[in-house]
Design a protein that fits this description.
single chain, mainly alpha, rod-shaped
């Protein structure tokens, strides 16, 4: 019985580990997206605004800034989706953790029951051996 429960505990632990790895991957993706935003912000800051010249040059710079801002908005949407996914993964981790704890509890309970049964059997064997020795001593003493 405990061997089967050991396998169930291992499976529950593997599921928990998988969810934790998924959470880690998700968090790394969020960090990458944030660094992309930082990079785009740096590119925007590096764009020189014309102080003189034609209006079309100014309009061109403004359009390129708008394109960068659009990229940032798209990345922020992706980050929002990653946060939603992270919530889901966190819920799955809670469930996997509870399952692991249940399996561990059942394993420990079965192991304790097995140990108690072994101890009872051992005590019974020792009692039988003690009775046999006592009866031999009593037979020797009466002879």
């Amino acid at each position: 019985m405990t061997k089967q429960l050991v396998n169930l505990v291992k499976i529950a632990k593997q599921k928990l580990d998988m969810q934790e790895k998924a959470l880690s991957r998700n968090q790394m993706a969020i960090k990458r997206k944030r660094s992309e935003i930082d990079s785009i912000n740096a590119q925007i800051a590096a764009i020189p605004m014309p102080t003189s010249g034609s209006f079309s040059a100014y309009q061109s710079q403004k359009d390129s800034i708008r394109a960068y801002i659009y990229q940032i908005e798209e990345i922020q949407i992706q980050i929002g989706n990653l946060y939603k996914e992270q919530e889901h993964i966190t819920q799955q981790i809670r469930i996997a953790h509870l399952e692991h704890e249940k399996m561990l509890y059942l394993y420990n309970k079965a192991k304790d029951a097995e140990m108690t049964e072994q101890n009872k059997k051992e005590a019974k064997r020792l009692d039988e051996a003690t009775i046999m020795l006592h009866s031999r001593h009593a037979n020797i003493a009466t002879s």
